[in-house]
Amino acid sequence: MKVDKFKAGQSTHLYATKFKYSYLKPAYWSTWFAVFLLFIVYLLPLSVQDAMANKLGDLMRNINKKRRRIARINIGMCFPELSDNEKKQIIRDNFRQQARSVLHLGMIWWASKSTLEKRIVMRGQENIEQSLKNNRGVIVMPAHSLALEAVLSSVAMRYTSSGFFNPMKNKLVDWFVAKARVRHGGFSYARSAGLRPIIKDVRAGCTALYLSDEDLGAERSIFAPFFNIQKASVPVLGRLAKSCRADVLPCMGCYDEVKHRYVIHILPPLENFPRGDDYEDALVMNQSLEKIIQICPSRYFWIMKMFKTRPEGSPAVY
Questions:
Q1: What pTM did the predictor assign?
Q2: Which of 60, 67, 58 lies closest to 305 in space, CA to CA?
Q3: Where are the domains of the chain?
């Protein structure tokens, strides 16, 4: 549900989405040209866009050896039982999905709400509705999938949403992405705002979106198993859920290449969560991430250095 006359928890910390005239300077002309090309692609049928994405993804895989190596290491660590051919298939599909996520930005940025509702389908919405019916707050916990922008749009179209926004190096692209995330009525905050505005929003009836699988360094993390690998995990989710008096619902975004649409899976709330112990909460969080990633493994963001921070005495993996 949308929250009528909703007031953001800390308006002073809202991420700025105001257009700046400096974006018209020559330094951004190449970006504007890329946006123009993206708009042209957006006008094409999705079947054509998907075919283009597959070709572009294969090219990216062949050129970007660094990211291909990171993906190979991550998949090898998390799925040691797979054959070499199976791992190669996941990597191939993963790069194709990366290209698709870029080409589909035009749809996320410019398509009407009615169009997006047809192209981004939510499965398990009843789980959100049940939590709200039980007078519980809702925190949707997406895996860092290549359909993340579709996930955020899917929730924002149906519920007043609140979450953090990580600034991008290119400020014009940053503006387009930030603007798209709030165009359905949601709120984005800079990480420097802390958790307080999110907590206020959820208590007021807003649905929060919280990414829990990023590696933010040893100082902000504890180590907990993730696919049987000790991973630096930020012990915030349990505290956030307690402060918000909210259920945590795992979420995974996948893409159906046959029907040319995104399918957003919302799972039931984590049971007995939070448990009052940072390690136990991190363990439950990671186990739930494992579960949702396996819904469509090739759609996860395998090219990020998810095991960059290592336990003391452990060798670097990248």
A1: 0.92
A2: 67
A3: 11-18+117-299
